[in-house]
Automatic annotation (TrEMBL):
Keyword Zinc: yes
Function: Reversible hydration of carbon dioxide.
Residues bound to Zn(2+): C82, D84, H138, C141
Taxonomic lineage from the root: Eukaryota, Fungi, Dikarya, Ascomycota, Pezizomycotina
Organism in which the protein naturally occurs: Aspergillus heteromorphus CBS 117.55
CDD domains recorded: beta_CA_cladeA
Name of the protein in question: Carbonic anhydrase
Family: Belongs to the beta-class carbonic anhydrase family.
GO terms assigned for molecular function: carbonate dehydratase activity; zinc ion binding
The reaction(s) this protein catalyses: hydrogencarbonate + H(+) = CO2 + H2O
A GO biological-process term: cellular response to carbon dioxide
Listed cofactors: Zn(2+)
GO cellular component entries: cytoplasm
Length: 250
């Protein structure tokens, strides 16, 4: 019985049939492997596929959004935050593309001479006429933790310098705290320092005076997704002294 079909196939035909089956099995395995790569093991590939679904979903929910954005941007918020992957500003604010103009860097540090952040601020305030500038730090910030440690970090050392200066200025307070408390305190001090620096920029001062631009200092809690507003109010005297010292005319 084992030979019932064999007489109908020549040796050559049998060899071809076996080869065809082998190719089919290999192709199936490869397909399965590719499917696995694109769906689970490669986050970028799957994200690229998800993008098409996302764009279709947004276009369905809000058909005018993409055509409107194609004609220009009118964001009301400039967000300055940390590059940390856990702090995606537009997502955590529940907003959409076109709502937030963004600058993010390690530990949301504003250096007075930093061309990148300065250009973003200038463009957002002078040309986009944003109504709010948000400077946000976040809990468990790696940059802040690094500045509270004493390891050499290469190019990150000059970048983190303002944080180390804040650490120096508040050393007794920070040393009296647990590592978690000290981390959060330095996060807050860094945001308050950044808000101070923002208000020393002429383009920002002008916009505050002329059209009521508002500056906000926030802390984002990565453990619960909630934003907390810091008190950045100044006394009349402090405002007067700041304007006298930093306001310049053309
Ligand atoms: Zn961070």
């Amino acid at each position: 019985m084992a030979n019932t079909t064999a007489p109908f196939l020549s040796h050559h035909e049998l060899h071809k049939a076996i080869l065809a089956i082998k190719i089919l099995v290999t192709w199936n395995e490869e397909s399965r492997l590719c499917a696995n790569i694109s769906t689970s093991s490669d986050r970028f590939t799957s994200a690229l596929h998800q993008n098409k679904d996302w764009a279709a979903q947004i276009a369905k929910e809000d058909p005018s959004l993409f055509p409107t954005l194609a004609n220009g941007q009118y964001p009301e918020i400039l967000w300055i935050g940390c590059s940390d992957s856990r702090c995606p500003e537009t997502t955590v604010l529940g907003l959409k593309p076109g709502d937030v103009f963004v600058h993010r860097n390690i530990a949301n540090i504003l250096h007075a001479g930093d061309l990148s952040s300065s250009a973003v601020i200038e463009y957002a305030v002078r040309y986009l006429q944003v109504k709010h500038i948000v400077l946000s730090g976040h809990t468990s910030c790696g940059g802040v933790a690094a500045a509270l440690g004493n390891k050499q970090l290469g190019i990150l050392d000059p970048w983190l310098l303002p944080l180390r200066q804040l650490r120096q200025q508040n050393l007794d307070l920070l040393n009296s705290m647990t590592p978690e408390q000290a981390n959060l305190k330095l996060v807050e001090l860094n945001v308050l320092e950044g808000v101070k620096l923002l208000k020393q920029k002429n383009v920002v001062l002008e916009a505050i005076e002329q059209r009521g631009l508002q500056i906000h200092g926030l802390i984002y809690d990565v453990a619960c997704g909630v934003l907390r507003q810091l008190d950045t109010d100044e006394s009349e005297e402090a405002i007067k002294a700041r304007l006298t010292s930093f306001k310049t005319d053309v």
